[in-house]
Structures are given as structure tokens and as C-alpha cells.
Amino acid sequence: MIEFLRRLFKIKPQPKSVLTPEKVLKRKPKRWIMNLLFTIAMMAAVAYSFNKATYNEIRLRTFDISFQTMIRQLGMINWDFFFGREPWEFVDGIVFMTIQTLAIAFLGTLLGAILALPFGFLASKNIVGKHVAVFGDFLLTVIRVFPEIILAIILVKGFGMNAFAGLLTIGLHSIGMLGKLFSETIDAMDKSPLEALDAVGATTFDKIRYGIIPQVLPDLTSVALYRLDINVRSASVLGIIGAGGLGTTLLLAGDNWGWDTIGAIMIAIIVMVVTVDIVSSYLRNKLI
Amino acid sequence: MLQFVDVIKTYPNGVQALRGVNLKIADGEFVAIIGLSGAGKSTLLRAINKMIPITSGKVEIDGIDVSTIKGRRLRMLRRSIGMIFQSFNLVKRMSVFNNVLMGRVAFHSAFLTLFGVFPKEDKLLALQSLDTMGILDKAFIRADQLSGGQQQRVALARALTQKPKLILADEPVASLDPITTVQVMDDFARINRDFGITIVANMHHVDLALKYATRIIGIREGTVVFDGLSSEINDQILVDIYGRSLKHDEVLGE
Amino acid sequence: MNKIALPNGKFVVKPFNKMWIVLPILVGLVVLFWQFIRMDPAFQPENIKLDQLKIILVKLFTPKGNRTWEDYFKFMLKLENPLIATLKMCFAGTIIGSLLAIPFAILSSKNIVKYPPIYWGFRTLLNLFRTIPMVVLAIIAVLFIGTGLLAGIIAITLFTFGVMSKMLYEVIETVDMNPYEALESTGANRVTAFRFAVVPQIMPIFISYLLYVFEINIRASAILAYVGAEGLGVAIKDNTLYNYDRVGATIMVLLVLVLIIQTFSGWVRRRLQ
């Protein structure tokens, strides 16, 4: 029967296949074609991005002069601007703005951390169970993905162009990441004390206060300190849309940014960010 | 021919790994180096292809002083020496075939190989090596999909693809189970016999060394304390090498 | 005070609680920093009302005055060019910046460069460079080549470079160096050994970082419009005073874009594992 079918469809009996290096070589998957096409497509897309990329031709042509000016002026920091002396006011100066940036970042992180606590519990399987946790996690993802700048634009519109709007922006935006990391910390902790508290008849609030908080506080603080690092960076630019802090000085310096002001702002940002970085990583190391 | 003349190796931290080693290994030999861990076996082996540079003395391969060459000439020498490692050292995310092809990388100028372009003969050679090791059917599987014994065979195929005169093996079976250990050691013996490739292997298991190697070199605290045929080994010599009688994990036991 | 006496005469000494140091410092910092928020001339606490925010949200996400919902959505369609500009800036910037980061990441890796002054030098440079915000980079780019899309590309390129180089060298330092040793033992030079032993290990992570940074750039690049680059931010900036509904429409488009890219990159990253 099989023989008949073979003849009918003219199928030759398959020789028992023996693998030889030559045969295997022919079977080699041609991955490189896909890779090449992908690379070419990527490069074409990059090239297309530069197509009609607008710029100021005169400025570009005087690039060398700009460069020389930069080298010459970078050392000439505008100290009046730095300390907010005449013709500026102290509250417009870089020193004030730097501290205000720190204030926005610090208070914002604190606010975010406090608000993130309930969210962290809401997204933690240990506390609220699997189903609610999925919902809480989704909520945190939405907050995390929502662009900080848009939040700032909305809040600046609502509360005016001031540092408070910046503080709120940082605080609300931080909830996303802090809440997620909080919930992970809570899920990873040792559950046996909760059982013990259950055994002595503790309420949910008691369990959180005496069973969970003491265990997770160092980790939560460490996460918040890490977030402070990030927030100092964002707080230093949110001013450009009116949310206070160093970014504001970029506006105050006018549209004609000169190297004397840019240099001062850059120094302030670098010193501030590096300092916060060092302090926060020192404290985080101490916590562990 | 491989020759060690008064080789001394002192690490920057002051540890003296080799204290005046003199050796001669002829072509086609199967040599096992035994000794306690930390006795200098690994250093001795790696001094041969200068993966570890020696402090003083001479390591000669076919009249070339390995200890003085560097750069291109060193790489030329290395490509004629296969090397097998305890943890196989495969690129786990690459296919078996590409791993074996790595044996040919040093034979070509860098530009084309950087893009993964190899001549057809090389590809065929790689597959032939896989065929020799009996794992031709695994050619396009990712290396991390294979068992430990199969991975070590891939490493052996990689070494074979170099068409080496000499294969160095650093504890080749130490992370394998007893059954695959025997299979892989059989492979070494076959390569040694069929292709006449010299094999120098560090061995943790003494009984395996005695079974497969024709010659045993015993190292203790950086000096050669025994050098002779495996048939000459007796308990007294083992005590000389190990400073004590063997622990049960140093014999495979069959 | 720290002694607690038991009725039977024994007592235990309570150790000093560090909270008594940390808490006052924390409160002090809060009070001090709050002064700097309050000193902001534009901040009048008595003027802040929560219903103000509600009004704004309504203004943002409903059509203005005599405009209809049709106008609202039609405006979204008009955003085609700014949208493409945003994508162009972020795409080119992410790709070029990431490629630029590769050599610097290699030079900062302990396991590849075995000479401490080199990798510490590069790390310090990169760390300092990374502190400069994207906006400041954009301002500098504008100073050199004027306003426009190119300044945006350059700012995002430099920003990506800073972020990527750090993430990359941290990955390179975690790779399995055994294959590298094996490649060196076959006589391969260091470049080839890196290409075949390290690159396959870091490639999937590199691509997933690439997508991650692209996401960040899309979200962050809106701000670049305020210093003279292009993209969706321009539509926000131009309408920010009178046409709240247009700002809202642009925000919606940006959110949808972020969502799409987030979903896509999540899908790719899951497949890479």
C-alpha cells in the first residue's frame, strides 16, 4: 500500500540520511541576512532623521568663533548673578536657586515617599492579596510612565509658576517608582513576625506598625535616598517650565544665554548633583 | 617539543607558584600533571602558551622561546595550541557551530572576522571537528542548551579546529559527573592516538590520570617531585606528591 | 532615664535610640527647605486652591470656547510634523549616543582595561558629564548651531551617551570572562576576543537598554522645545498661554506615543530574554 502511494505521487524512497559536515553546512541558518537588513534599515532611519534637520547656518559657520568664545568666557563666571547681587535680586541668584532646587527635591522626595507608602501596600501581594496587588501595580505603572514634564506643565498651570508646583511634581511623580520598589521590599520581607502578631490578636494597623514598618524602614529609606539623587537632577531643570529651582535661572538669564551665566549654572548643577550623590550613597551604605 | 628550563614564577603578591621547573615533553605524549590544588599546576600549564607570563627561565616550544615573544608572534603561537578549561569557557549565547568556529578567528585578519565572515573551508573544518567529537547534529543549537559533557566536547572541537600540535587541558573533567568524565577522557585519548596531538592535562583525579596518561608529572609547592611513566607510580610516590595519602575526592573510584 | 527598673530590683538599660538624632535633623531640614519654597516671590500659599487644578484639567481636556470636539481631534492630526520631529530627535539621538557610549564604556570597565588610572579617569569624566541635564546640553548645542531639530538631536545624543556609558560598563563588568580567556588562548587579539566573547553576552542587554533610553528620551524631550529644539513640546509651548485645549490635545498625543513605545519595548525586551 505504501509502495503504491509512493508510485502514485512519485515519491522516491528517502535514503537514510547520514549527517556529513557538507550537508550540515548547507543547513546553516542565514541569520546574517536579517542582521544586515536590520542594520541597513536602522542606518537609513538615522540618516532620514538628519534629513531637513533644521539649524542656524550662520551659527554653524561661525562654530570656531563660538568655540573660542566658550573657552575664553567659561572661566568668567558672572558672580553678581551667582550670588544674586545688583542688578539681580538675591532670590534670582544661583545660590538661592540651588538651595531651592535642593528644597524641591528633598521635600518632593519626602512627600513622594509618604504618599508612596499606601500605594506600596496596595501593590504588595503580602498585604492585600494577589488581585488587588495587580490593580495597585497597574496604578503605579501609570504614574511611572506619565511624563514628569507634562505633570509639571499641568501643575504649573494649576498652582502658578513657583517652586511649590515643582515640589508637587516631584512628589507625585516619585510615587510611581517608590511605590513599586516599596511593594517589592514589602513582598521580600520575612513574614513570620506577622504570623506572631496574628497570634497575639493584632489588628491590620498593628501589624503594619509593629510587624512591617520596623523591618522595611531601612530599605525604604535607602530607596528614597536613591530617588533623591534622581529628583535633584529633575528639579534642576523643571524651572524651565516655571516650576522653580535652578531651571528658572536659565529663563532669567534670558534667551541670549551667555557663557558667563551658563557656566555659573553648570557649575552649580554639577557641584549640587555630585554632592547629593556622595551624601546619598554614603547614607545608603550606612543603612545596609 | 616542549621544554621548561629553570622556570620561576612569582606572583605580584609574593606567592612563588613555580620554583625552578625543568621539563621536556616530546611530541605525541599524553602527560598528566597532578598535585594538590595551589601546587602550581595551573600556572605551569598557562606558562606554556603565556596566558601567565613567567618571572624567569625559559619555556621553549619547537625551539621558540615563549617567554620572550609577544604581540602578533605570541598570538601565532597560541593559535597552534588548543586549550581546554574546567568550566568549558564557551560563549553560552552563541551556537555550538560559532563557538567551534572561534578556533579559526586568529587565522584571519581582524576586519572580516569582526563581522562574522569566515571562509567556507573554515566552516567545513569546524563542522568536521564537531563530527569527530560526535556532536555534528548539535551544530546550530545554542551552547547553553547542551549538557556539561557535550559542552566540553564543543570546547574540544574548538581546540581541534585550530589544528593544534598541542592541547593544554586545565582540569578538563573537574566539573563533570563520573560517566561523562570517562567519555570525555576517552575523547582525549582518541585525539591523542588518532591525530598524534600532544596532550598536557592538569588532573584532579589521580586514578584517571594513571589510566589515561602515558606520563605523570607530580608537582608540589612549585617544584617537580615526580616525572615518569604512569606505571611507575606507587603509594610512596603519591605521598611525596601530596604530602599525605589521597583523600577520597581525589580518586574517581570505579 | 534610660534605666528601666523591674519590680524585683533588677534593671535593664535601654540603648540610645538613633531616631532622636535623625528625627530632629529631618524636621529641621523640612522647616529650613520650606522657607526656600515659601520665599519664592511667585508663591502665595493663600492663593492655592485645589479647585483651580480641576478647572485647569477641564480646560486642558475639553475644547475651548466655541471650538468643537471635532476641532480638538483635528488639532491632534495637525501634530504630525512635531510628532515626527520628536521621533527623529529621539531615534537618531538614542542610536548615535548609544554607539558613542560603547568605546567609552569599554575603556571604563575594570575587567577589560586592567589599568586603574585609565578606567577611573574615564569613569570620573563620565560621572561629571552625566550630571549635566539634557536641557543644558540643548542650550549649549543651540549656542553652537542655533535653534532647530539638529540641536535637539545633539542634546539627546549627548544625554544618551552619558546614561548609556554608565549602564554599559556596569554590564560589561558582570560578563563571564571565561570565554574571553578561551579566545585569547586560541591566539585571538583583544578586539576579536571582545567581539566574540563579550559582545554576544551584552548584546541583548544593550538592546533592551537602548529601548529603555529611547523611552526616557521620548518622555524627557518635550522640555527641549523650551530652549529652541523641535518636537511635540513646541506645540505645548506655543499654546501654553491661551489655547489650553491644544496643550491638552498635545499632551494626549504624547501620552499615546509614550504608551505605544512602552508597550513595544516591553514586548521586545520580553522576547530578548
At a glance:
The complex is a heterotrimer of chains A (288), B (254) and C (273). Chain A is mainly alpha-helical and 288 residues long.
Can you describe this structure?
The complex is a heterotrimer of chains A (288), B (254) and C (273). By secondary structure, chain A is an all-alpha fold. Chain A has one domain: MetI-like (MetI-like fold), CATH 1.10.3720. Chain A is built from 15 helices and no strands. In chain A, helix 7 (94-122) packs parallel to helix 11 (163-188) and helix 7 packs across helix 14 (246-252). Chain A starts with a helix and ends with a helix. Chain B is of the alpha/beta class and 254 residues long. Chain B is built from nine helices and ten strands. Chain B has helices at residues 41-48, 71-79, 96-101, 110-114, 120-132, 148-161, 178-195, 206-212, 235-242, and strands spanning 2-10, 16-25, 30-34, 56-61, 64-65, 81-84, 166-170, 198-202, 215-220, 223-229. In chain B, a hairpin with a 2-residue loop joins strand 9 and strand 10. In chain B, helix 6 runs parallel beside helix 7 (178-195). Chain C is mostly helical. Chain C has two domains: 3-45, no CATH class; 69-272, MetI-like (MetI-like fold), CATH 1.10.3720.10. In chain C, strand 1 and strand 2 form a beta hairpin. The longest helix of chain C is centred in the last third of the chain and has 31 residues, at 190-220. The model of chain C has no long low-confidence stretch (mean pLDDT 88). Chains in contact: A-B, A-C, B-C. The A-B interface holds A 19-22, 24-25, 27-29, 32 and B 97, 116, 120, 123-124, 127-128, 130-131, 136-137, 139-140.
List key phrases describing it.
heterotrimer, A: 288 residues, mainly alpha, MetI-like fold, B: 254 residues, alpha/beta, Rossmann fold, 4-stranded antiparallel sheet, 9 helices, 23% strand, globular
Cα shape of chain A = flat
Distance between the termini of chain B: 34 Å
* Total helical elements of chain A: 15
Largest interface: A-C, 64 and 67 residues
The CATH architecture name of chain A reads Orthogonal Bundle
CATH topology of chain A: MetI-like fold
Work out the radius of gyration of chain A.
Answer: 30 Å
pLDDT below 50 for ≥5 consecutive residues: which ranges of chain B? Answer: none
- CA-based shape of chain B: globular
Major sheet summary line of chain A: none
How are strands sequenced across the largest beta sheet of chain B?
Answer: 6-7-8-3-9-10
